Task: structure prediction
Amino acid sequence: MTTETTQQAIDRLWAEIDRREDELIETVAELVKRPSPLGAEAEAQGYVAEHLANSGLAVEVWDPDEAIKTIPNAGDSGVPFAGRPNVAGVQEGSGGGRSLIVQGHIDVVSPEPVEAWSYDPWQATVVGDRMYGRGAFDMKSGDALNLVLPRLLRDLGIQLQGDLIIQSVIEEECTGNGALDAARRYPADAAVITEPTGGRFTHAHVGVVWFRIAVVGKSWHAMQAWQGVNAITSPASTLRRTNAVALPRECGSA
Ligand SMILES: [Zn+2]
Result:
């Protein structure tokens, strides 16, 4: 295949993706069936690590560094990192090329209220051309793609010049700490995050800042409410912003 052009390799890859669509969908389902809300990512990450290892990548599984939280403006979900690993798999390039991270987050938001679902959020039920499950879209669809990609490259004998680094990270829905930690541990020349964006490529993104505000009012008997200060409605209220970040268990939707 030494005479194959890049375009020919890309065409072969696309054709293989179409041919193995069922495998891709099955991989999404396998991920959805492993619930991974904040604090419970380990089982799904274990599946990711095994899948990457079976594709021949050098895999590392590690708990993120708690020191991440001391970086200015870093978030804190309030849940320690112990037992909540990030995963990275490296497919070494042949040399001379730029390295690429392909990354996805493994965490999903809470499925509550579960009674509002038409199907069990952890069963990955397929009806017609639609899969029902928490995280089937955001973003275990992208995670599955990230797993299948190196496998297809291997099976097709497509050798990249630069290192390909697959990362599966925790805590995207709340803080981004998992991605930050993985990028520091396995940096690369560029990164593609396979977050669903409606088929569009996005090269810049809004961020999220969590903060707590304390509003100070002045209590008064309701009979003379006008004598007090309504902390909610009064522009005269004293606003005090703190650095303490208290996140709800259910946070984020990215
Ligand atoms: Zn997402």
Summary: The CA atoms of residues 229 and 235 lie 10 Å apart.
